[in-house]
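Can't paste images in this forum, so I'm doing it all in text. The chain is below; anyone willing to post the predicted structure tokens underneath?
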Amino acid sequence: MTYNNSDVHLCSWPYYLRDLANFESIRNVAQAGAGTTHIFNSIINEVEYNKKISPEDTQIIVMWSGLTRTDTISTQDITTPWHNLVSASYNESTMNDKSNQLSTYHFNDQFATLSLFNGPKGKTPMADLCRAYKRHVSTDATIYESMLKIKSLKGYLDNKGFNSIFTIMYDPGEDLKIIDKTIDELDDIPYLLEFATEQKLLEGGVGHPTPDGYLRWTREHLIPYLIK
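Text version of the structure:
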């Protein structure tokens, strides 16, 4: 569940894991810019309605994102134009020549994840909605909700009999201090973003690991943890 650096090649950690650890296939339900609610909703949707997934032959690995990010579910006539607009604005602001489009997770033929981004630009109704939501729902409340969803998803997967691993992109310590809570459900794996920063393997301008950053973290930390 992570940003992919290329619009041509699959070069994020799920695909490196598939190739290096000999997984037969992967089902990646990531959505660019999405947060805890999207991850929570999409995984439960897959477990409940994807007939190809079963506890006997599925390993679930969750890379949690920013605890202050906000998502909900809406109809695709709302989600698609909004995410396309945000993509165009992002590509323009970063002078990105890849014309990246935000991936959108579809729950079915009608519903998809709608991201309520932090700091949206412009004066569109959706941008206004994002700003209004952030004004009325405090950052600490969003962090608290994220914490509860991480704990709830772990319990849900355990109850369903799935083996799951939970990691997170960055050290959540400062966010959790705000609400005076901990998340014991996270596995003891070095944080991807901190690893990439220490190794000077960050993509310029976007703050995500380079392909080598994803590859090395997968090889040096994720796979050894899986084997252990």
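Strands lie at 59-64, 70-75, 111-116, 163-168. Residues 13-33+60-154+166-227 form one domain.
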